[in-house]
Write a structure and sequence with these properties.
CATH topology of the largest domain: Growth Hormone, Chain: A
Structural class: mainly alpha
Distance between the termini: 25 Å
Radius of gyration: 24 Å
Number of strands: 0
Shape: globular
Number of helices: 22
CATH superfamily of the largest domain: MFS general substrate transporter like domains
Strand content: under 5%
Number of domains: 4
CATH architecture of the largest domain: Up-down Bundle
Length: 526
């Protein structure tokens, strides 16, 4: 697979103000990319309401970006060698600005999803290439320092994103969460071009696996559409869903056969023949799917059923990056010394504890108790991505590292998008079940129901208004219990995933081969 090229370009390092300006420009572009993933989470209810769709349909804004981004990742290496790292990076940033503008102009869900698909496609090269160009700006002895600074910018974005997205949604309007990319992106593109245009990488014309790429788009796109539209179309009672399922299964089967026999596959599936890569990527991807699905679920529950504004929901999510910022430098330093399998195990235990705490949420849970597990989650994030990336990429030849890093990112990002769809679908179906069970107990003449109605009518509400209030309370309880079910099931799955980690072998006690790629994984994760 043609993956991202992480080696520094053969140019002398920058120095003085040029190096500082280059670091800021590249970090701003990455920050914009990462910010756009987290800033939309708290705005989904507002977007859905404004465009006249359900919040469940509103999550397509997130999943469409993730799937398109995953599909674009395998092309990064080929595009880099075809056009040069600097030209490709600047073009990606400018196209990201254009797609952000189109997202802000959207007047329907279809227009917005189309804009987000374009955003995801052009965002693919931005994170790995920003890292490539940054490494070319520093002497090799200072590479760790450069990546540490770069990594911090990607960790600040999850803190700023929910707060900024909530404030913009409440005080301006949701299109501005996309419009703010325009000045940032234009500034980053202009500065990067001025500083790096004479430092581009060599251009080579290489073959590309068009058939493999087409089959990749077919099966991933069909599967994601099936998951997104399944509930709306009553699943397999719909010929559309059946058609999408058939396309996904056949597309995957043909894709596997083609990629294993083609001379220049777009995805090097033979990497899964390595024990550490197979189990490491599986643990990372399933864990990330669970993690990201729950990250999307929490603000939906807070805003739809707990009365939170977008701003207050952003406050509840913002602490997630604080411990990550503090712990990540230590993890990066110790991952080649300590056993990364133990570090990843601790991460999964933290995620288990976080979701176990959330599984006890009720409609009466206050903001402080909601923020505690979110704060702890940051420690899990720091111990999750870098150690598992190190395990997955250990023992590979340097020539295969770019392909392996690209493939692991593709699988992880695809799992994140699918995890979001599965979690939101299960949440709604569990809520329907809990609603039915709660209503069964409230038969006509039930003392509790009569007392509640009496209290509401005594407070001045009419009978229909009192019944509507009771219905709202039942719905709130049902959706809260459904969210608790998802949190609890996810917690148990994190415990089970620990077994996958210990099916891998410990990497050699050397500088972790995946450490150079780890910050990209961290950034893309948010």
């Amino acid at each position: 697979m043609a993956g991202p090229v992480l080696q520094a370009a053969p140019h002398p390092p920058l120095s003085g103000g040029a190096r500082v300006a280059g670091t800021i420009a590249l970090s701003l572009a990455t920050f914009m990319n990462v910010l756009d993933s987290s800033i939309a989470n708290v705005s989904i209810p507002a977007i859905a309401g404004n465009l006249g769709v359900s919040p469940g349909q509103g999550t397509w804004v997130i999943t469409s970006f993730g799937v398109a981004n995953a599909i674009a990742l395998p092309l990064t290496g080929w595009l880099t060698q075809r056009f040069g790292a600097v030209r490709l990076f600047v073009a990606s940033v400018l196209l990201f600005v254009l797609s952000s503008w189109l997202c802000g102009l959207a007047t329907s869900l279809e227009m917005l999803v189309a804009g987000r698909v374009l955003q995801g496609l052009v965002a693919g090269p931005m994170i790995p290439l920003s890292q490539t160009l940054l490494l070319s700006s520093y002497p090799p002895a200072q590479a760790g320092r450069a990546l540490a600074f770069w990594g911090v910018t990607t960790l600040v974005a999850p803190v700023v994103g929910p707060l900024l997205g909530g404030w913009i949604t409440d005080n301006l309007s949701w299109p501005w969460i996309f419009y703010i990319n325009i000045p940032v992106g234009l500034g980053a593109a202009l500065a990067t071009w001025r500083l790096y245009r004479q430092r581009d990488t060599p251009i080579h014309k290489l073959p590309i696996d068009r058939v493999g790429l087409g089959l990749l788009v077919l099966w991933v796109g069909s599967l994601q559409l099936m998951l997104d539209k399944g509930k709306e179309l009553d699943w397999f009672a719909s010929p559309v869903i059946i058609g999408l399922a058939v396309a996904a299964v056949l597309g995957l089967a043909l894709f596997l056969v083609w990629e294993l026999t083609d001379a220049h596959p777009v995805v090097d599936l033979r990497l899964f023949g390595r024990r550490n890569f197979a189990f490491g990527v599986l643990a990372t991807s399933v864990g990330y799917g669970l993690f990201f699905g729950n990250v999307v679920l929490l603000p939906l529950w807070l805003q739809q059923w707990m009365g939170y504004t977008a701003t207050s929901a952003g406050m509840a999510l913002a602490p997630v990056g604080l411990l990550a910022i503090l712990i990540t430098p230590l993890v990066g330093k110790k991952v080649a010394v300590w056993d990364p399998r133990w570090m990843a195990t601790v991460a999964f235990l933290i995620f288990f504890g976080v979701l176990w705490l959330r599984a006890g949420f009720t409609p009466q849970t206050d903001l402080a108790h909601i923020m505690v597990p979110t704060l702890l989650q940051g420690a899990g994030m720091a111990l999750f991505f870098i150690p598992l990336t190190t395990v997955s990429l250990s023992g590979l030849n340097p020539q295969r590292l770019p392909a392996a890093a690209g493939l692991s990112n593709f699988v992880r990002i695809t799992a994140g998008a699918m995890g979001t769809s599965i979690v939101t679908t299960l949440w709604e179906s569990r809520a329907v079940m809990h609603h039915a069970h709660l209503v069964e107990r409230l038969q006509q003449g039930d003392p509790a129901l009569s007392a509640a109605l009496g209290g509401l009518t005594g407070a001045g509400l009419s009978d229909p208004a009192a019944l509507a209030q009771i219905t709202r309370m039942i719905d709130q309880q049902a959706y809260t219990r459904a969210a608790d079910d998802i949190f609890l099931a996810s917690a148990v799955m994190f415990l089970l995933l620990i077994g996958l980690i210990w099916l891998t072998q410990r990497p050699a006690r050397l500088r972790a081969p995946g450490a150079g790629a780890a910050p990209a994984d961290l950034g893309a994760a948010h």
